[in-house]
Amino acid sequence: MGNSQNKLRKAQSVPDTQALSPDASFVREKSRSSQRLNDHRHKDGKHGHSADHADHKIPVTEALFLPHFPLRGEIEDLDFEVVEVIAQGAFGNVLKVQREDDKQFYAMKVLEKQQIIKENAIQQCKDEAAIQQMAGEHPFIVKAHEYWQSRRNLYIVLDYVPYGELFTLWTFHGAFPEKLVQIYIAEMAMILDYLHNNGVIYRDVKMENILLDARGHMQLTDFGLAKWLQGGNQTRTVCGTLQYMAPEVLSVYPYDHSADWWSLGILMYTMLLGKYPVDAADNHTNMATRVFECDFLLPGNFGDDVQDVINRLLTKSPRRRLCDVSTLQDLPFFREIIFNDLIEKKISPIEHVPEDFFPMTGVSWAPHLVEHRDKDEFDGVSSIYFNCFSSRCQIFLCSRQILPDIQF
């Protein structure tokens, strides 16, 4: 396994609190299940209620999350049956649930308001739900069907994706064939292009946030660090996962959507070699030093075409970095990929790897297949569906690292 020398631990993201969302439009019609999930009328008519027609004073803990999270009942009062807990996180659990009327399975985040308020993450949760619902119209993004609040909790209902995630596939194989890397980088580039054109910066591209569908296509999830950011604007909060963060983010400079394209380059390098190009440091300042000292050169057995993509994505100056899907798809490394066919899923990842590469069993499979000596390193790993917002993950900004010869 390509990762046998490193701990097989999922990276934790650094949290942030976001700004208010602009209006966003949907790209395609909602499915029937989505329409049913967004129908707030219930069989007995007593669980749904609106802030606009409330005849009593709304508690502060409810008003804080309006209007993004409409008022409804607890899950036990609605038409969902809890099957099992599939994840635990700092704000609550993620449940596998079944809707009683259509018998479909969904993943439901149940987030504790008290903890969200304590962590000062109210706007962060509002934006996560709104962005993921907008972005879920993309074929490579997990769809969020609806969200609401009760007195104690927030609820977010997502598609249930049971076929595992990219991280566990990577830890099992150690590295991916170049053809599979071509497909996955193309898919992620189209995802980023869609998000950026809709005024969103994702800020947490990493394998842990990429689920796989039944044909091996990407399903991006976890928008906890995403932020509404229109083209031409910048932000400066240090957040993300250290080994994927762009040098301008690590150095506490203002940054824009180009930071996501750096993370795409790290993703590509890691999938090709089975290891990260730079070991994680203990803080963002030391990580910035390591990144600026790294040349990101692939071994000699890789061709010039693949190295050219790495060079363009991992350009340390964001002004010169490759930052659009049109340029990317014209590079020689991607000459065999027809991007329009890929987004229409006419090209399938499972058709370009050995038959047993994707053991798609309908369950999260990889932790059961790793060798025994690696099993303990999966213990305690959080689920594919949940992001850690714990204050213990915070990076505290105390300095700006000024590094020479890089024009931010």
Provide structural commentary.
GO terms for molecular function: ATP binding; protein serine/threonine kinase activity. This is Protein kinase domain-containing protein. The protein is α+β, with helices and mostly antiparallel strands. The protein contains 13 helices and 9 strands. It has a 5-stranded antiparallel beta sheet. Strands 6-9 form a two-stranded antiparallel ribbon. A two-stranded antiparallel sheet has the order 7-8. Strand 2 (92-99) and strand 3 form a beta hairpin. It is globular and about 70 Å long. The two termini are 38 Å apart.
As laid out across the biggest beta sheet, the strand order is 1-2-3-5-4
Would you report the number of β strands? 9
Strand count, sense and barrel status of the largest sheet are: 5 strands, antiparallel
Structural class of the secondary structure composition? alpha+beta
CA radius of gyration is 21 Å
The stretches of 5 or more residues where confidence is low (pLDDT under 50) are 1-9, 16-55, 364-404
Q: What would the principal axes of the Cα set say about the shape? A: globular
What level of helicity do the residues show?
25-40%
User: What do the pLDDT scores average to?
Assistant: 81
In N-to-C order, the SSE pattern is HHEEEHHEEHHEEEEHHHHHHH
Number of helices: 13
What share of the residues does DSSP label as strand, in percent?
A: 5-15%
Report the span from N to C terminus: 38 Å
